[in-house]
């Protein structure tokens, strides 16, 4: 199979991985202990499938890692931390970390025994990450970090958080983005869980970095190549958010289709009414189309085209989030009153589905990106 074809039609290895992860997801199911699933998926090599083999990973790429998250989601048990730990942090460390940083972090990230959260969002910067103000200054051989972050997922579960800060350019005084590994219990690193209307295993935190002192090797990558390194991690984040949304959408449609085949209130199952069947068919088509774009983005990324992957990853995230929100809405509606019961557990997906529309980059910011970058339209801001 040509490389271009394998981007849209899976290889035998990828199909086998999909089937194996789907079986693991079915065994665990919706209500199962997510920590146990994380541990088992890690042991089986699924969490680190994208990381280099010499550090215990599977030596594959984002195509494979997105298959793992999509299939767990389709079984009703997505692992949100996959978006940040192996996909963003693992990628950045594998591509830009020192030999010592790779040896220290990658084997644990690959087998799931260690996790790393990722913190870029700030209360005053929001979608405009150019405005982040978390600042690192040098003090002798150390770095000292000060700032605030918000909505950072899984900080309590993670061994460390990869914090996006800035350093001041000694010559120009301009701020440059830089990445630092901050251990969970570092002095001055405070966290407060944000009460969210989300029924999820992973919590979101507001973080305070109050003169957090870090050794020189907490800096990942080159102090002068900040943006490039950051984008190397953000494209996988968008691809994985697409996978998260696709899995959830498929799960919701699967539950609704099952219900629509059984439920009968007149002479025929409700699924025979086109007002029920067509929206489900439409949601299925939209999920399939978004999956195709996700595979394109993963293929471009895995073949080293960071620029091409940027556009495709944004489009895939947009398409998957929109398809997921519509799929969940239709699934809940298909179940009538049961769509809102705890027993069927679908209504909780209404807020969960919207996460992919907001994070890691909102629908509007993707439309801005496509307007400016793809279509060359002028900017309003
Ligand atoms: C469940 C969850 C988990 C998260 N996990 C993490 C994490 O682990 N790490 C992390 O760093 N962040 C995380 N985030 C943060 C997330 O990435 C941000 O919420 C997101 O980037 C949007 O930023 P904001 O919330 O500040 O919204 P704002 O930037 O305040 O935007 C508010 C609204 O205004 C719109 N808007 C803003 N500017 C424009 C414009 N120029 N044109 C048009 N519309 C505009 C936006 O689209 C949005 O609809 C998480 C968020 C959630 C909800």
From TrEMBL:
Keyword Oxidoreductase recorded: yes
Coiled coil stretches, renumbered: none
Residue ranges annotated for the Acyl-CoA dehydrogenase/oxidase N-terminal domain, each copy included: 11-112
Domain Acyl-CoA oxidase/dehydrogenase middle positions: 117-198
Keywords tagged on the record: FAD, Flavoprotein, Oxidoreductase
Acyl-CoA dehydrogenase/oxidase C-terminal domain segment(s): 226-370
Record SUPFAM superfamilies: Acyl-CoA dehydrogenase C-terminal domain-like, Acyl-CoA dehydrogenase NM domain-like
Signal peptide start-end: none
Annotated family: Belongs to the acyl-CoA dehydrogenase family.
Protein name: Acyl-CoA/acyl-ACP dehydrogenase
